[in-house]
Amino acid sequence: MEHLANALTDKLIDWKIINSEDRDLYAYGFWQGGIYIFNYASVFLIGLLFGMLWQSVVFILSYGLIRPVAGGYHARTQRNCYLFSVLLIVIVLSMLKWFPLSSIVCILVLLFSGAVIFILAPVEDENKPLDETEQMVYRHRSRIVLSVLSALTLLFLVTGLVPIANNITLSLLVSAIMLILGIIKNKRGRKTEY
């Protein structure tokens, strides 16, 4: 992926589309963009293999809304992040397929996840520390996204679209678990510093 990003950047410099002084910035951007495309393509492929394409799309959209503002656990390497993400989507789709939540359980999981996210978010990572202002901004944003996703979940439950409600609820549950794991990782990291 990195080789492809560098080659594309070099071609754009050769064609005088970008300045050579901006090479590192563009190469990094192409590399990150390629990783995002590869990750999303993997999610869609897994969704297709499970026969659950729309479920994988709903999960990645709802999880993709809450995760960046709530924070939480981050793997130490891109490879581990990718493997963890693949495992995560397989677990979620398996739960949706073979262990769907009843409306009552969905509401209970929603309440638990919502409480965890409301209280803990945002959880910073050692690679993405947050200053006091960023903490306030991300806390506010995470609560807005949580409110919207919770309202959508309840709307889907009331209108009988329980599978969609289950999907959003699981995205919030995964986010809550990532917050808890992030706090554990941060505490362990601080202990090793001393």
UniProtKB/TrEMBL annotation:
Origin: domain of life: Bacteria
Any single Pfam family the record assigns to this protein: AgrB
Keyword Signal: no
Residue intervals passing through the bilayer: 37-61, 81-96, 102-123, 144-162, 168-184
Keywords: Cell membrane, Hydrolase, Membrane, Protease, Quorum sensing, Transmembrane, Transmembrane helix
Name this polypeptide is given: Accessory gene regulator
Organism: Lacrimispora amygdalina
